[in-house]
């Protein structure tokens, strides 16, 4: 189940100080500054037995399916607790969770210094993808959103171009599109557009949740390996 049930205490991105530990806990001690993975896995299903607990068949996410961290104290499993480096703030600590989501998207779309990238969605995850791409030296980053305030933040965060539609991306890239395209907006329309802006040999990643159950994906765009103007 992707969406939350109510009533619910929110909070799945958080950091804090360990106040007490269980008898068998060895990874952290009282007083440690930590961040916490919000995933609670069953430990029994096939993915869990293969240590791929992030895709547990009965996964519960703190703040989504069970109560989260918008409170003074929370009890969590040792496996998901990670000590923070001394020089990292609590703010940096709670941003580790969305940043890991972004890094995985960047890794799976095999982005490198040779690539250009379009990011659909200038929300938290979109901005984290932007920063992760900057860190690995992606050559050019275009970010799409219909919210101008979010786009101005993206510009401050060093996006090369900020646009409101896929047509603008084609103009900026002279019809080529970009090598990588990541959909992080959650808009069904964006899922249709990502295939239009992927260049030849492009890689596309989708990591948002959607309220719509169906979209119209253009299959010819997926198998088209040449630039349209070169056909
Ligand atoms: Zn499981």
Describe the fold and architecture.
By secondary structure, the chain is an alpha/beta fold. Strands 8-7-6-9-10 form a five-stranded parallel β-sheet, sandwiched between helices. Strand 6, helix 4 (124-136) and strand 7 form a beta-alpha-beta unit. The protein contains eight helices and ten strands. Helix 3 (96-108) packs across helix 4. Helix content is 29%, strand content 18%. Zinc ion is lined by residues 41-42, 44-45, 47-48, 56-58.
Question: What structural keywords apply?
Answer:
single chain, 231 residues, alpha/beta, Quinone Oxidoreductase, Chain A, domain 1, Rossmann fold, 5-stranded parallel beta sheet, 3-stranded antiparallel beta sheet, 8 helices, 29% helix, globular, binds zinc ion
**CATH architecture call of the largest domain:** 3-Layer(aba) Sandwich
| CATH fold-type name of the largest domain | Rossmann fold
CATH superfamily of the largest domain: NAD(P)-binding Rossmann-like Domain
The spatial strand order of the largest sheet comes to 8-7-6-9-10
Please state the average pLDDT score.
93
The overall strand count is: 10
């Amino acid at each position: 189940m992707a969406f939350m049930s109510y009533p619910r205490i929110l909070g799945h991105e958080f950091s804090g100080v360990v106040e007490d530990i269980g008898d068998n806990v060895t990874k952290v001690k009282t007083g440690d500054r930590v961040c916490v993975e919000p995933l609670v896995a069953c430990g029994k299903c096939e993915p869990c037995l293969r240590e791929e607990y992030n895709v547990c068949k009965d996964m519960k996410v703190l703040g989504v399916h069970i109560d989260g961290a918008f409170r003074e104290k929370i009890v969590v499993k040792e496996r998901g607790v990670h000590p923070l480096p001394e020089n990292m703030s609590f703010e940096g600590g709670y941003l580790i969770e969305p940043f890991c989501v972004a890094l995985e998207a960047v890794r799976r779309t095999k982005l490198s210094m040779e690539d250009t990238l379009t990011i659909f969605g200038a929300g938290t995850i979109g901005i984290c993808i932007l920063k992760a791409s900057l860190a690995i030296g992606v050559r050019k980053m275009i970010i799409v959103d219909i919210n101008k305030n979010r786009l101005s933040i993206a510009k401050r965060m060093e996006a090369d171009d900020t646009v409101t539609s896929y047509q603008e991306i084609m103009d900026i890239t002279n019809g080529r599109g970009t090598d990588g395209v990541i959909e992080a907006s959650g808009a069904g329309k964006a899922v249709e557009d990502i295939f239009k802006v992927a260049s030849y040999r492009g890689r596309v990643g989708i990591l948002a949740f959607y309220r719509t159950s169906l979209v119209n994906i253009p299959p010819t765009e997926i198998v088209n390996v040449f630039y349209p103007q070169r056909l």
